[in-house]
Each structure stands twice: as C-alpha cells, then as structure tokens.
Amino acid sequence: MTENRETQLLSDVPDGLFIGGQWRPAEDDATLTVSDPATGDVVKTIASASVADGMAALDAADAAFPAWAATPARERAEILRRAFDLLQERKEQFALLMTIEMGKPLAEARGEVAYGGEFLRWFSEETAHVQGRYGANPEGTGRMIVTQHPVGPCFLITPWNFPLAMATRKIAPALAAGCTVVVKPAALTPLTTLYFAKLLDDAGVPAGVVNVVTTRSSGPLSDAIIADPRLRKLSFTGSTPVGVSLLEKAAKGVLRTSMELGGNAPFVVFDDADLDKAVDGAIAAKFRNIGQACTAANRFIVHRSVADEFARRVTARVAEFRVGRGTEEGVVVGPLIDDRAVAKAHALVTDALDRGATLHAGGSVIEGAGSFYQATVLSDVQAGSEILREEIFGPVLAIVPFDDEDEAVRIANDTEYGLVSYVYTESLARGQRMIERLQTGMMGLNIGVVSNAAAPFGGWKMSGLGREGGAEGIHEYLQTKYTLTPDP
Ligand code: NAD
C-alpha cells in the first residue's frame, strides 16, 4: 500500500526540464539518477541540463520578464496565494517526496512543507506593499520621486537539505517583486523542485516566469548563466566555499547577490538556565533534519557547573531515538544525505576523541544499506578539535565547558561563521548582553528553532550576505530609482 503510494507519487513528478512553460528532455538527452539515501536505491531518472539548456532557460526568463514586471501587484499576489493553497492540498505528497529523496523523517518533512509554504503566503501579502516616495527636496527647488523596480531575471541555486523551503524562500520574493527566475536545485534532491514547478504552473504562473534546470553539471551551467549580461541577480544557498567562488564570478557582471552560506552555531547554556528547556532546545537545534541544517547547533558551550548534568540528560534523550527510513513511524534519526556525509561526521568524531573528548553515546557508522550514522554525544571537547571549526552536518552533539561569561562569548565568537546562536539563561540582563555580544545574524534566546517566513533570515561574517523572508526579503529582488523634477 505504502509502496503503491510512493510509486504513484514518483510517476507524478515530471522528469524533464521546465523551460518557457514546457517540459522537455535535455538537448543532448543526458540524464541523472536520484536515489533514496535510506536504501541506496535509484528512485527516478530525470533530465540533466547542458549549458545550452541553461541558456535556453535564461532566454525564457528574459523574454517573460517585461510582461511579468508589468503585471499588477495584486495579480502576482493572487497567483502566489493560489500556489500556497495548492501546496496545502498537496502537502502530504510534498512531504513524502522529500522523505524519499532527502531522508528526513516524515514528521519533519511535513514541518518543512508548512514552513516553506509560509513564504508563498507571506510574499503574496508583501507584493502590494512595495512603495516609493514623493516629496520636495530640502532646498525647495524640485520634487524627488523614489520608485522601486524588479531587478530582472534571477538565477536561484538551492541546496539539498531543505528541498522545498529553500526554493520557496527564493522563488516567492522574486515573483512578488516582479522578477523571473531560473532555478537550479541540488542534483541530490531535484524532484521536489520539479514537482513544485508543476504546482506553480497549475497555480497560473505564466510561461517563462519560473524555469527549472536540473543538472549533473552545476559548475559549467552556472558559470554560463552568471556570465550572461541579461542575468541581474544571483541568489545562492549552500556551502561557503562554493558561495565565495560564485561571488567572484558574479563580481565581473556587478550582479546583485544574496548568499545564504554555512554556519557553526554556538548553543550557550548558562548556569542560571532552565535545564529542562535547554535540553529540549538542544534536541531540536541539533537533531532536526538529522543535524543537516545551516542553523544546526554545532558547539554546545555549557557552564562547567551544569555540563555533566546537561550531558547526562541529552544522552538519555538520544538513547530513545529510533533510527530508520523516514517513512517509518517514530523515526528521529533518518539517513544522512550520502556516504560522504557519514564519513565526514565520523572523521570529526574520531578527531575529537583522539584529542581527548569523552564519548557518551553513538560514535559509529551504522553498517548496512543506506547512509546512517549513530546519534552521538561528546563532552569535554578540546580546543583545536576539528569539530569546533567545521560544520558537522550530522547527528553529533559536542559539548565544551566554560567558566565565565566572557569565556563563553569568546568561544562562541571564535569562528569565521555568524549565522545563528542559541542562548539559554533565565537572566534578562544576561540575555540582553548576549544579543549585543554574539556575532550572528540571528539568535534563539531560550528557544532552539528560529526560522520564520516573517523574519529576516541571514548571516554575518562568512555566513552570508542579504536576508530572506521578512519585510527585508522582497527588497533583495528590487532596485531603487530616484528621479528629480522641477517644481510643478
Ligand atoms: P553546496 O555548496 O555543495 O551546494 C549548494 C548548491 O550549489 C547545489 O545546488 C549545488 O549543485 C550547487 N553547486 C555546487 N557547486 C557549484 C558550482 N561550482 N557552481 C554552481 N553551483 C554549484 O552545498 P550543499 O552541500 O548542497 O548544502 C549544504 C550547505 O548549505 C551547508 O554549508 C549549509 O550550511 C548551507 N546552507 C545554508 C543555508 C542558509 O540559509 N544559510 C540553508 C541551507 C543550507
């Protein structure tokens, strides 16, 4: 029965490129295969775009731009709202599809559909709120008019870890602003984006406004699109090294860019924290998405007086986790995205243990089919361990003790990243000091998950440029014009 449902769903997902409102194979008939990371089985074969296909997608986005930019805001808003409504109707299909291609437990996939959908609703509402201004200049010798304009065709590159939400977080504000887009999802999880393109088509998005190119050749295809002067904006979510190389290329065309890059989130627990709440927050901030989130807590910086108790409590929680394919009831630890991710998590754990950390739970690769790693808890992780510098992207909770507030701040800020931080304290004054002292674009104060469509999501330092969501999100896709006219 379940198998039938999966087979039916997979056959409903288009297997072509979506260009100019048409589904088509790659011009050279190249394909790529998509696997289920819980089993290693190939679940679908789809088109793999060439550079020529990428350029055809840009042609379509460029051709569709003038009409879409001129479409009244209300009409664009209503199309986005229809997309939101259709997503509610198809939410079970989207959740299952993400579990199949990415591995996250079904309950979390449902959470991502809810979160991802909110960007469609939020930006449908923001569409009509883009405003300019008009007024006398201070010298009284003219009138100043300030207007907002869509930047033009955009290239949107998304990662594999949140296949739906990372797409809606870019597509919705771009369309709301009047931009057209070429979307390139990760080759590991392209099916959700293809299925979403079908939904947008059903919602009435005109041909050419959204184009999707799935490909095995991300580098060459992206380079060609970025080098084309018709492109006016690049929005990327992914790792910092790839983001930096894309920024260098985008600089040649002085492209507008938004970069949502890697993180190394500190999770600071003070001795005055409510430990029950801190443990709940830690489980959410660490094990959501099997640790594969840019916002995942990477370093648990815990006051020495409560560090043992914190380790004991999180270890007890981890012992209850069920491991398995995300479609099975009650599973918390699904597979990691691939065997490389498993090897990376294990290398970081091994390095930390070699340098003197204590192992409380896990610490091993789970043998057999699929890419599984045990939920792991380490304490007394020593300075200099790789796990404190690198994004873990796996179910590994690493605890570092501290003695006073200054030391906690120093450790927390000792990273090139600055996406998000989490702080647990019952002291209002200490919480306020942390808001001012921690170098991150977002903070969870006594809460373990911060993402919200109505909030400006984004990082400081090497974690990125620009903001997605909130009132800020649409401005990433708008440019300002100032006009001066003489007095009437
Ligand atoms: P990645 O950088 O390997 O890939 C991201 C995307 O870029 C994929 O679509 C990939 O195909 C594409 N890509 C890879 N090389 C490219 C190239 N040379 N030219 C053009 N495109 C290229 O990252 P990933 O492994 O898919 O995702 C995990 C990373 O994403 C982590 O570092 C995570 O922190 C980050 N992330 C950040 C946010 C955020 O909002 N800040 C959200 C989710 C994930």
UniProtKB/TrEMBL annotation:
<dbReference type="InterPro" id="IPR016161">
    <property type="entry name" value="Ald_DH/histidinol_DH"/>
</dbReference>
<dbReference type="InterPro" id="IPR029510">
    <property type="entry name" value="Ald_DH_CS_GLU"/>
</dbReference>
<protein>
    <submittedName>
        <fullName>NAD-dependent succinate-semialdehyde dehydrogenase</fullName>
    </submittedName>
</protein>
<feature type="domain" description="Aldehyde dehydrogenase">
    <location>
        <begin position="23"/>
        <end position="482"/>
    </location>
</feature>
<dbReference type="InterPro" id="IPR050740">
    <property type="entry name" value="Aldehyde_DH_Superfamily"/>
</dbReference>
<keyword id="KW-0560">Oxidoreductase</keyword>
<comment type="similarity">
    <text>Belongs to the aldehyde dehydrogenase family.</text>
</comment>
<dbReference type="InterPro" id="IPR016162">
    <property type="entry name" value="Ald_DH_N"/>
</dbReference>
<dbReference type="Pfam" id="PF00171">
    <property type="entry name" value="Aldedh"/>
</dbReference>
<feature type="active site">
    <location>
        <position position="260"/>
    </location>
</feature>
<dbReference type="InterPro" id="IPR016163">
    <property type="entry name" value="Ald_DH_C"/>
</dbReference>
<dbReference type="InterPro" id="IPR015590">
    <property type="entry name" value="Aldehyde_DH_dom"/>
</dbReference>
